Amino acid sequence: MQIYKVGGAVRDRLLGRPVSDVDWLVVGATVEQMQAQGFRPVGADFPVFLHPHTGEEYALARTERKSGRGYGGFTFHASPDVTLEDDLIRRDLTINAMAEDEQGTLYDPYHGKRDLDQRLLRHVSPAFAEDPLRVLRVARFAARYAPLGFKVADETLALMRQIGESGELQALTAERSWKEIERALMESEPQVFIEVLRSCGALEHLMPELAQGADTLAALHQAAQRQQALPVRWACLLRGLEPAAIKALNQRFKAPRECQELAVLVGEFAERADQALAMAPANLLEMLQKFDVYRRPQRFEDFIAACEMAALGPGYPQGEYLRGAAEAARAVDVKPLVEQGLTGQALGEALKGERLKALEAYTAG
Ligand code: ATP
Ligand code: MG
Prior knowledge:
By secondary structure, this protein is α+β, with helices and mostly antiparallel strands. The protein has helices at about 10-15, 30-35, 85-90, 110-115, 135-145, 155-165, 175-185, 190-200, 205, 210, 215-225, 230-240, 245-250, 255-275, 280-290, 295-310, 315-330, 335-340, 345-365, and strands spanning about 1-5, 25, 40-45, 45-50, 55-60, 60-65, 75-80, 100, 105, 120, 150. The protein is built from 19 helices and 11 strands. It starts with a strand and ends with a helix.
């Protein structure tokens, strides 16, 4: 059997980028041979194994054929007669379809190195169209490598457009799509992900709510430059949309609860936050209550961050002001009210009254 390093590890080494995880490809072996050498199978019907010591992934060379619509509609064929070239041709991009043997010799039948040098994201073969997730993957790689000057090849963009028009993008599961969206948002130029999807028409099918207009890409870019967390980036992207559109996007991709919540809150309160310095104490209190700043301080911080990213300016004094207001409301002590014998709803009302007084003092000062 022959063992090759493949995919991202080869690509990133050639780019001089840090390599995080290494994928290995095994040619000329059977499942039984792998198990006899101590490799542990990852799943029952998938020819992928874990190395007994390093835990790294070793996949048997395979070919695959589309056998139905949507994910899962693939049949795999793994056997010792599948060649390195057979395996590499089913991969998405030429820069992801290179292999390296144990001596460090590069195998590059689809000219990934040339495309790396030309800074091109190019599909390997027409089989690209068999998995619509690849449209999102290409956009994600475009976001990641934008600082290095990478572009999507024209013919690949055209193929991505066809895939969008075929309706296959809607057949992707929420889980697969979100994984790509999440990784793309965490790249250094996440707005490029959206721009690429828009430029090939895929955005209209994946996120029609965003395709309409609502230019939030500058805020998203700013959020990445300022190393903001995922929920902040998602909320920046969705800011300015109608509540129904925010809800639709949250649900379509089954975004994590933190992302969903923050996007909804930013949608509802961001404009008020921008006007915070002119807010009446009662409105300020209503907002702090709605955010539950007493028990959810981090969520409020994320909210302020999202508002600040959209402001785009060098500073956002509203942020400091809102933080101060939350502090003032939090500083109200419930103990004296309890000692007065208040309970239940009456206690809640009294506490609110005290917090309002605190905010009146804060806004006056
Ligand atoms: P990353 O640095 O993001 O991990 P990667 O290239 O290693 O990048 P993986 O998702 O780990 O990406 O996949 C490993 C390799 O498997 C890819 O380089 C590519 O060759 C192939 N691959 C993964 N997913 C697909 C897909 N949906 N279609 C075609 N090829 C794929
Ligand atoms: Mg990888």
